[in-house]
Automatic annotation (TrEMBL):
Keywords: Methyltransferase, S-adenosyl-L-methionine, Transferase. One of its GO terms (biological process) is methylation. Pfam families: Methyltransf_3. This is Predicted O-methyltransferase YrrM. InterPro entries: Cation-dep_OMT, SAM-dependent_MTases_sf, SAM_O-MeTrfase. Gene3D superfamilies: Vaccinia Virus protein VP39. GO terms for molecular function: O-methyltransferase activity; S-adenosylmethionine-dependent methyltransferase activity.
Length: 198
């Protein structure tokens, strides 16, 4: 892939959050093992994870939604520069306001939630019904740099609120009988969520 390593470094240098390589490799393996072909991503940033997925999995497509103006434009440029427009469809919108009838692909095998952490449950409730019955949802950053295990000692008030919200989502999904959840301490903590077969 054209300037892929540079893209990763450029994101890190500009504090643009992108998925850690270890987490991406894990996700790629899960998608390959399950023979998945179509992913809906919430939070594209500059298109890094979407480009990694389509470049490493045969016959794979991603439809992704990004809220931020500059990141959306940069993602568009990166996708186009790498000739990946046939495999990645990107929308510029707030995923919570986005009209789902505007999605282009269907038969999504996986939902990858990688946007505003305080809204994980809302993203999940809105988009999980679009995922096929044998599909999964992947959620990243559930450890929040380990802070989730030591909330009482977080000094910054905003960070503490955010970490509490992440923990609330984690507890909610683990207690939800409709879903089977496996936690993987890869990268910053990844959950794989499947609909329970009844
Ligand atoms: C962690 S970054 C995504 C990284 C990307 N998945 C990757 O690994 O290359 C999260 C992105 O979600 C976007 N975002 C936050 N809230 C959003 C929302 N409600 N709808 C769509 N995008 C959102 C942010 O602007 C940010 O670029």
């Amino acid at each position: 892939m054209k300037y892929f390593k540079e893209l990763e470094l450029s994101a890190i240098n500009r504090n643009i959050p992108i998925m850690q390589r270890e987490g991406l490799e894990f996700m790629i393996n899960v998608f390959k093992e399950n023979n998945y072909h179509c992913c809906l991503e919430i939070g594209s940033a500059i298109g890094y994870s979407a480009m990694m997925l389509v470049s490493n999995i045969a016959d794979f497509k991603v439809e992704t939604i990004e809220l931020n103006d500059e990141r959306y434009l940069e993602a568009l440029e990166n996708i186009s520069d790498n000739n990946l427009k046939d495999q990645i469809i990107i929308h510029h919108d707030d995923a919570l306001q986005f009209e789902i009838n505007n999605l282009v692909l269907n038969n999504f095998d996986c939902l990858f939630i990688d946007a505003a952490k305080a809204q994980y449950q809302k993203f999940f409730e809105k988009y999980m019904p679009l995922i096929s019955s044998n599909g999964i949802c992947i959620v990243d950053n559930l450890d929040f740099h380990g802070m989730i295990f030591d909330i009482d000692n977080i000094k910054n008030r905003n960070t503490k609120q955010l970490v509490k919200k992440i923990k609330r989502f984690k507890d909610w999904i683990f207690d939800n009988e409709q879903y089977e959840v496996t936690y993987h301490s890869v990268g910053d903590g990844i959950c794989v969520i499947r609909k329970r077969v009844t």
